[in-house]
TrEMBL record:
<dbReference type="GO" id="GO:0031176">
    <property type="term" value="F:endo-1,4-beta-xylanase activity"/>
</dbReference>
<keyword id="KW-0378">Hydrolase</keyword>
<comment type="similarity">
    <text>Belongs to the glycosyl hydrolase 10 (cellulase F) family.</text>
</comment>
<protein>
    <recommendedName>
        <fullName>Beta-xylanase</fullName>
        <ecNumber>3.2.1.8</ecNumber>
    </recommendedName>
</protein>
<feature type="signal peptide">
    <location>
        <begin position="1"/>
        <end position="27"/>
    </location>
</feature>
<keyword id="KW-0326">Glycosidase</keyword>
<keyword id="KW-0624">Polysaccharide degradation</keyword>
<dbReference type="InterPro" id="IPR001000">
    <property type="entry name" value="GH10_dom"/>
</dbReference>
<keyword id="KW-0858">Xylan degradation</keyword>
<dbReference type="Pfam" id="PF00331">
    <property type="entry name" value="Glyco_hydro_10"/>
</dbReference>
<dbReference type="InterPro" id="IPR017853">
    <property type="entry name" value="GH"/>
</dbReference>
<feature type="domain" description="GH10">
    <location>
        <begin position="31"/>
        <end position="343"/>
    </location>
</feature>
<dbReference type="GO" id="GO:0045493">
    <property type="term" value="P:xylan catabolic process"/>
</dbReference>
<keyword id="KW-0732">Signal</keyword>
<dbReference type="InterPro" id="IPR044846">
    <property type="entry name" value="GH10"/>
</dbReference>
<keyword id="KW-0119">Carbohydrate metabolism</keyword>
Amino acid sequence: MHKNRLRLVGALAAVLVAGGMAAPAQAHDKQPTLADLAQRHGRYFGSATDNPELVDEPYKAVLGSEFDQITPGNGMKWYATEPQQGVFDWTAGDEIVNLARAHHQKVRGHTLVWHSQLPDWLTSKEWTAKDLRAVLKKHIQTEVRHYRGKVFAWDVVNEAFNEDGTYRETIFYKTLGPGYIADALRWAHQADPKVKLYLNDYNIEAIGAKSDAYYKLAKELKAQGVPLNGIGLQTHLALQYGYPTTLEDNLRRFSKLGLDTALTEVDIRMILPATEEKLAEQATWYADLTDACLAVRRCVGITIWDYTDKYSWIPAFFEGEGAALPYDEQLQPKPAYFAIRDALK
Ligand code: G3I
């Protein structure tokens, strides 16, 4: 009840901002940030970012002040970090790590093993299991070593399962079998015994075939003593598909396995145009997922997949959809922003 009232106040503030009646920027700056509020619960509140955006000073100002955690959207992926076999390039990832350090923000490493955005030298060749194992091990260990002490967590394997809970037939699965996941975790752990190691995927927010596959695998890996610390739920939601009402229960069952969880790539897209009603519903969803994370002790933090609609991946990937983030394209907070604040209060 109290919470709902707060949300109404937040929504009103949003209307005032939208109507141009916002308090001056200085007054807004004095408010606690999302990061400040999340820290009171022992959580972080982060944003993804990407290198091309870092020339945008107003964008960088909000990125550096409102959040206490950063994830590089592309800069640490295999195509960026090992563009030729055995030739490593840390330029993009380092730029983001350095920016984050300057603002005392922690960094999630994303991602070591993924079927997408692989370099051509890797995908254009038929590999023997022996050779691919060696290539994978070297990639993981070189990158984890490079970022040792600079990232607090890694998405070691990203998107390993299909929607029905079967293994995705990636180059790694097809060549090495399902054991590549345990191997990847062990290799990463050898290279940095302190960093938290995650498996990360989308459409695993609700309890269902795909999240069940993670639950089963996580249980097996823990039983075998494989170094797995957490499950990342990407949380790319869409208003037209409904809210994952079992999110909190789902987070809790992973906690009970002794695992951390995190909402790692949150956005909530909608079919455009964005109406007041849709933005209000989106705000409620952002508040609800924040509540779900706060309700489960081992849900360690929330990362939005960039913070502004200006740099969202959605419009390029889903035609006619967008407006997925808590700040609009002019970097103004939307109702979702105020709803998150209220949920964190
Ligand atoms: O680097 C080229 C550039 O040279 C070229 O001019 C430009 C023209 O389109 O494309 C650039 O590559 C783009 C790349 O991002 C870097 O900006 C690709 O086209 C584009 O497809 C790629 O999109 C990324 C996407 O992963 C690829 O699947 C998004 O930025 C990134 O936000 C997104 O992130 C993923 C997570 O890693 C995993 N979970 C899903 C999430 C959303 O797709």
